[in-house]
């Protein structure tokens, strides 16, 4: 016990002397549309769990009916079939939350509140609707993209308990895809495919321009944008993406508080909010 305690003290003294930290540094957030809770610093182990939950599956966190890589099947494009009832202008997304997620309900409500305050999207508790989102505690953080028909899963497993992560997954449920998969992403970010884990490369596929519906400008701060080390062979060492401009810092969804102005503009355009 004595030697364990001594080792712990010496380790922390050395880390302090070298200027190292046991937490992931808090990032200066961009200006967001209204007052939402700031993002608290994460301990390194907490960040590892959050990263594994979001990036631990080769398929990433988006699910489609017709295949792993079928981005043309995403509702965030031009296909209106996958938009929720009430489109245009008053979309309603029925949902149920499994009892295993009771501890996350306050965070889920906070995430939904952003959509309610800033867009015309309304998440409503399911009564008898046929099509709805079923939130379950499975492995990882992931969701089907857009309305799929009947009950569709949105998973919030261990490591998914950050508001930014939940806002991100709800974004997929309404039909949004990742910012780094825009057809024009190479104008704003550099992708280092050699640093990506083998078998995970499809997470950097770009949308076909013929099917694409996107906001005018690339948004480095978008809640749908992954961080610099997403799917990296050596997280926090080998970058898989990097902004071309110094003010384009790529953060993970769990490091961000929520929707940006550009996210809001695009959602309101997608669902023709008045």
UniProtKB/TrEMBL annotation:
Its EC number is 3.4.24.-. The active site is at residue 169. Residues 1-19 form the signal peptide. Monomer. This is Metalloendopeptidase. The keyword Metal-binding applies. Zinc metalloprotease. Provoques deadhesion of endothelial cells from cell cultures, and also degradation of fibronectin, fibrinogen and gelatin in vitro. Its role in the venom is not fully understood but it might act as a spreading factor that facilitates diffusion of other venom toxins. Alternatively, it might be involved in the proteolytic processing of other venom toxins or it might play a role in extra-oral digestion of prey.
């Amino acid at each position: 016990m004595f030697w364990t305690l001594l080792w712990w003290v010496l380790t922390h003294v050395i880390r302090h002397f070298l200027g190292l930290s046991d937490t992931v540094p808090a990032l200066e957030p961009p200006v967001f549309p209204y007052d939402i809770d700031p993002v608290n610093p994460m301990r390194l182990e907490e960040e590892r769990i959050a990263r594994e939950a979001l990036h631990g599956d080769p398929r990433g966190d988006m699910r489609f009916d017709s295949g792993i890589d079928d981005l043309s099947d995403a509702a965030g494009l031009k296909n209106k079939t996958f938009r929720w009832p009430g489109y245009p202008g008053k979309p309603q997304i029925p949902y149920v939350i499994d009892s295993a997620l009771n501890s996350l309900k306050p965070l889920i409500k906070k995430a939904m509140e952003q959509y309610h305050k800033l867009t015309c999207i309304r998440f409503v508790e399911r009564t008898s609707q046929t099509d709805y989102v079923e939130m379950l505690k499975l492995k990882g953080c992931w969701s089907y993209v857009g309305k799929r028909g009947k009950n569709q899963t949105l998973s919030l497993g261990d490591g998914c308990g950050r508001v930014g992560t939940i806002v991100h997954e709800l974004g997929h449920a309404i039909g949004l895809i990742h910012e780094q998969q825009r057809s024009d992403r190479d104008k704003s970010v550099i992708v280092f495919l050699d640093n990506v884990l083998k078998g995970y490369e499809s997470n950097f596929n770009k949308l076909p321009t013929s099917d694409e519906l996107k906001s005018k400008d690339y948004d480095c701060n978008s809640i749908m944008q992954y961080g610099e080390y997403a799917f990296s062979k050596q997280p926090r060492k080998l970058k898989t993406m990097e902004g071309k401009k110094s003010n384009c810092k790529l953060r993970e969804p769990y490091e961000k508080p929520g929707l940006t102005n550009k996210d809001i503009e695009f959602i309101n355009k997608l669902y023709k909010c008045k």
